[in-house]
Amino acid sequence: MKLVHLSDLHLGKRLNEFSLLEDQKEILSQILQIIDAEKPDAVMIAGDIYDKSVPATEAVTLFDSFLCQLAERKQPVFIISGNHDSPERIAFASRLIAASGIHLSPVYNGTVHPVTLEDAFGPVDFYLLPFLKPAHVRRFYPEQEISTYTDAVQTAIANMPLDRNRRNILITHQFVTGAERSESEELSVGGSDNVDASVFEAFDYVALGHLHSPQNVGSERIRYCGTPLKYSFSEAAQEKSVTVVRLEEKGHLTLRTVPLVPTRDLREIRGSYLELTARDYYAGADREDYLHITLTDEEETPDVIGKLRLIYPNLMRLDYDNTRTRHTVSLDGAEDAEKKSPYTLFEELYTLQNGKPLSDVQQAFCKELIEQIWEGST
User: Fold this and answer.
1) 97-126 average pLDDT score
2) 20 to 30 A from 1, CA-CA: which of 177, 207, 280, 318?
3) CB neighbours of 20 closer than 8 A, spacing ≥ 6?
């Protein structure tokens, strides 16, 4: 059985106030071309369909068009909600839509029933497990100790009707311990959202969403396919791709990737103002790319952003690196804060105001309180 693994489309995302909707439309068209060439038995989309729980109309329209084109191809599709999605919105009309081969994860209700496809080696059971917090699972299993994300996912899996003699695939959206994050992903308190990879032992393949960098976790059996586009400058060096999974008889799995090429890349360049504005420098470059420019001049150029945008219209971020300053002059002033966890921000504020760090007792209390607030948020 051949499968295409996608995740983290983040439709409707804006980066440094630039809308990426046209870029997303173009990359979805490229994905459809890959699907046509690969002719998979199913497509899996592992959460974060949208960038916001209440997505913009244009984002919903784009995803509707993408699904309709998949349905026209008689292409079975499995979709779950991620932490950026509203599970209720993703699940809307799921039973009706399933008749067209598009399977949407329902809101978690304590049980997950598989959707089964057949190939030459027999049945393959697909389990659609949306993004979960401990509170989501605890309400259905109050008698069990569920205090961590590992507990939550482990309990959810333990209550699935798994037949270990069959081939089982899990599509889920969590942070698995040992994986590498990017700046554009949501941070939580002290890594408290970690899920231990051992909970996935029963599955022949785990199609993960949540992290933006394509990577295996421990083995190729547990994989993040990554985002189809670069969503932060920490991802500038990454090559985005579609993961193609080939599942044969039980125990036999192979993976490969098909590169995705964006219309406008996300790049970082550095140099002096005169170097970067010299015709010899920019003549052969793709000036339409989304750019983070670092200037090395000792003196600041008046209206430098406006002048640079005459050459590089999609300049997103500018900073200086010289002997006088190491401070970021970002077009998005909140960017540095967004990289930090709530606990780190509070700790820095406390130290700034009081002239001393939190004590061990204060640290423990603060972490516990923030985690309770984080877990209870929706």
Assistant:
1) 95
2) 177
3) 13, 14, 229, 231
From CA 236, how far away is CA 367, in angstroms rounded? 32
Question: What are the two backbone dihedrals, phi and then psi, of residue 269, each rounded to the nearest 5 degrees?
Answer: -130, 155
Find, among 172, 160, 178, the residue nearest to 130 by Cα.
172
Q: What is the pLDDT of residues 192-232, one digit of tens each?
A: 689 999 999 999 999 999 999 999 998 899 999 999 999 99
Exposure on the CB side of residue 253, measured as CA atoms within 13 A: 20
Residues whose CB falls within 8 Å of the CB of residue 330, separated by 6 or more in sequence, listed in order:
317, 318, 319, 336
The full length of the chain comes to 378
8 Å CB contact between 59 and 265: no
pTM, rounded to two decimals: 0.83
Nearest to 297 by CA among 319, 330, 312, 278: 319
Q: Specify burial of residue 142 (Cβ count, 10 A radius: 0-12, 13-18, 19+).
A: exposed
Residue in 328, 320, 327, 267 with CA at minimum distance from that of residue 296: 320
Query: Does residue 187 register a pLDDT over 60?
Result: no
Task: Say how many C-beta atoms besides its own lie within 10 A of residue 371's C-beta.
Answer: 20
